[in-house]
Amino acid sequence: MPDNRSQVPAADAALRILSFLATQRGPVAVAHLAAALGLPRSSAYHLLTVLQQRGFVVHLPEEKRYGLGVAAFELSSGFSRQQPLTRLGRPLVADLVDRIGESGHLGVLHGRDVLYLVEERAPHRPSLVTDVGVRLPAHLTATGRAMLAALPPAQRRALYPDAGSFTDRAGGGPRTYGELKQLLTTVRQAGYATENGEVTPGLGSVAVAVLDHVGWPAAAVALTFSAEHTDEHTWAELAARVSETAAVLSRRISGQFAAAVRE
């Protein structure tokens, strides 16, 4: 994808400012923002003033810091209303299911739950509990584990402050934060997450996180299959196919539409 920064430098810098602010824990000082983005402080002030006038940035005079404004929130709400993840993800998951012959789905993290946006059931495969609109505990599902593994440690810890945060479904899965942390380390090392009978006895899943342009887990793609009739080598092969689809969706939600599933 061509880099057009030199053609519209002000637009590029403004978008970089918004993207940077979106990744921060709170409002930041101009000096910190300018240094992080490699911008002259005078240019940063000018761009922030324009963004403030449009409502995308708010200035906190007592703290001498800038944060995201209401207009930025409205963009986020518009993103949710238009359901781009569902629209972009459904044909990719459907193609994956057609090629592999196992059922697939796409989910997003919603607190400690996974909310499923897409489910494509393969022919002659059993119905799944991961229907569209269903929520399941993230720490028990492959989709949830894939996304939790990509979160910053502090964010994960905030989601699971105590043992009461770990619900049980089929008698398996982590029961403490220490167990979850160890499991997610394995996920990061492997590059994909698994689940074996912890949601539905007899069924297993492999999942890979869909990362956005700043590396945040926007969603996860997964395949579900009979765990009893799938050997270890096949699990890895299925994970590789899921990873390809997740990578395509990651590029597409970042605006890179040239990719195709079979590229």
Automatic annotation (TrEMBL):
Q: Does the keyword Transcription regulation apply?
A: yes
Q: Which PROSITE patterns match?
A: HTH_ICLR, ICLR_ED
Q: Which InterPro entries did the record assign?
A: GAF-like_dom_sf, HTH_MetabolicPath_Reg, Tscrpt_reg_IclR_C, Tscrpt_reg_IclR_N, WH-like_DNA-bd_sf, WH_DNA-bd_sf
Q: Where is the IclR-ED domain?
A: 71-255
Record's superkingdom?
Bacteria
Keyword Membrane appears in the UniProt entry: no
Occurrences of domain HTH iclR-type (ranges): 8-70
Which residue stretches, if any, does this entry annotate as coiled coil? none
**Protein keywords:** DNA-binding, Transcription, Transcription regulation
SMART domains named in the record: HTH_ICLR (SM00346)
Instruction: Identify this protein by name.
Output: IclR family transcriptional regulator
